[in-house]
């Protein structure tokens, strides 16, 4: 299932997944280039995240619990490139830094936060891929049971406009008597969203308190600042990612774009054959297990072309056996990256073989 948000809204998409009791991943991309991932098991939402927070959200929730440095005590998660946050929550739980109630609360609040963001989207694209459920699992949400509540929240939030235009604006105190429930965290740099995470208060409750304080002249908010992703440098390496998983493609594309690389992602190995000759990449990331043409065959075909005989080809796979590594080397692969891999592993490998 895939399409545009002009054809079908997010409410309907998630309701259809629930009604069909589908298990898999829903990827939503806004026209501004932001991505959200929602993970379902038999129609129930078990986790949701985006590609922009880089553990900032988790750190905020931990800050509210007095555990702001907890993440730094953990090793890098191995649960996957697009579920780093989820992996860290489980690592904190297994290390007894979080108890099950706290971990469950963070997961459920994160899911609600993501839903709050995407339900107001009316432009963008979506892809739902059937895949094994994200594991381990701690909690779930039935969208049908909370959709009406979320709709009311969005309507309430819209009433704060134009005084409050975004959850990413920062309140500034004009009176020391204002916002006693939030004053501990207000410093002119903390966003409304962060205040909600720190305090445990619903985002609309925080918005209402700030809205009322603005009306009485006790608080103002910072102007809305738009974060523009850095543009790739002309001289930076050109990377081609070939993987039949749209989730992996978009996640790799986003991470490398933010590091200044020029990136193109293709989910069809057949299409990749034509793209590669036009794009002329400096490095290729290639999944092994794909339909039509597997990664070994694609790698071998590229190596037989004089134009791509020497470019780095990094194989991506969920397999980690000796035979698979040997096969990859035999067809001319430069390196072998085992899924799931973290952002740091990906960047380290790319930097090792890129021309930068």
Write a compact overview of the structure shown.
This protein is of the alpha/beta class and 356 residues long. It has helices spanning 10-19, 56-64, 84-94, 100-118, 143-158, 192-199, 203-215, 246-258, 269-279, 295-303, 322-330, 343-353, and strands spanning 2-4, 24-30, 35-41, 44-50, 124-130, 171-173, 219-221, 238-242, 262-266, 283-287, 313-317, 335-338.
Task: Write up what this structure looks like.
The chain has 356 residues and is an alpha/beta fold. It folds into three domains: 2-144, no CATH class; 159-221, no CATH class; 238-353, Rossmann fold. Helices cover 39% and strands 17% of the residues. The strands form three sheets. A five-stranded antiparallel beta sheet has the order 1-5-2-3-4. A five-stranded parallel beta sheet has the order 9-8-10-11-12, with helices on both faces. Helix 10 (295-303) links the parallel strand 10 and strand 11. Helix 5 (143-158) packs parallel to helix 7. The two termini are 38 Å apart. Mean pLDDT is 85; it is low at 76-82 and 227-234.
How many individual β-strands?
12
- Terminal Cα separation, in Å? 38 Å
**H/E element string?**
EHEEEHHHEHEHHEEHEHEHEHEH
Unreliable runs, pLDDT <50, ≥5 residues?
76-82, 227-234
Strand-residue fraction?
Answer: 15-25%
The SS-based structural class is alpha/beta
**Largest sheet report:** 5 strands, antiparallel
Whole-number total of structural domains = 3
- Mean pLDDT comes to 85
Question: Reading side by side through the largest sheet, how are the strands ordered?
Answer: 1-5-2-3-4
Radius of gyration: 22 Å
Report the helical percentage: 25-40%
What overall form do the CA principal axes indicate? elongated
Number of helical segments with 4 or more residues: 12
